[in-house]
Design brief:
170 residues; binds fe (ii) ion; 0% strand; 77% helix; single chain; Ferritin; mainly alpha
């Protein structure tokens, strides 16, 4: 962001860059959460869900690209050292120690719910003040909402499958 652009900005640009760097760290965590979760996952529907988790992972990586590019355009520096991710991320990484599909999906679900709040916060902060960042936040927010919805649907299907199996045993 140029000098005049910064002066006329109707918001605290440094605060916005801080929020975007927090979002950037969270996107890397979200990417890895999906990427490694898809690989260690076990249980019903694994073969169907695995490829979908990798699609989500790629979308998270694309969010990281969008957020980092926006930080640079605002005159900031994207986090340069992955060691800093844990300091910045408010949405935490959850180690997938339990490979059962429901456990993996629940970890991804809590990440998505945190991401939705994150982009709502950025959208509210920039609404009517920084249209480019606002537009980006809304674009990402829509995808995070879709991700949450996908995961909820898979969890419902797994639940349904379990109930149907129980009935068969009776
Ligand atoms: Fe994301
Ligand atoms: Fe997501």
């Amino acid at each position: 962001m140029g000098k005049v652009a910064r002066e006329i900005a109707k918001l605290d640009v440094d605060k916005l860059i801080q929020m975007l760097n927090e979002a950037l760290a969270e996107e890397w965590y979200a990417f890895y959460q999906y990427w490694v979760g898809a690989r260690v996952m076990e249980g019903p529907m694994r073969s169907e869900v695995e490829s979908e988790l990798l699609v989500h992972a790629n979308q998270e990586l694309n969010h990281a690209v969008m957020v980092a590019d926006r930080i640079v355009k605002l005159g900031g520096i994207p986090i340069l050292n992955p060691n800093k991710w844990s300091e910045f991320a408010k949405c935490k990484y959850e180690e997938p120690n339990d490979p059962y599909i429901e456990a993996i999906l629940n970890q991804n679900l809590s990440g998505e719910r945190c991401a939705i709040k994150r982009y709502e916060e950025i959208a509210e902060f920039t609404n009517g003040k920084d249209f480019s960042t606002y537009q980006m936040a809304i674009t990402i927010l829509d995808e995070e909402i879709e991700h949450e919805n996908d995961i909820e649907d898979w969890l419902t299907d797994i639940d349904r499958m379990r109930e149907d199996l129980k009935k068969l045993k009776l």
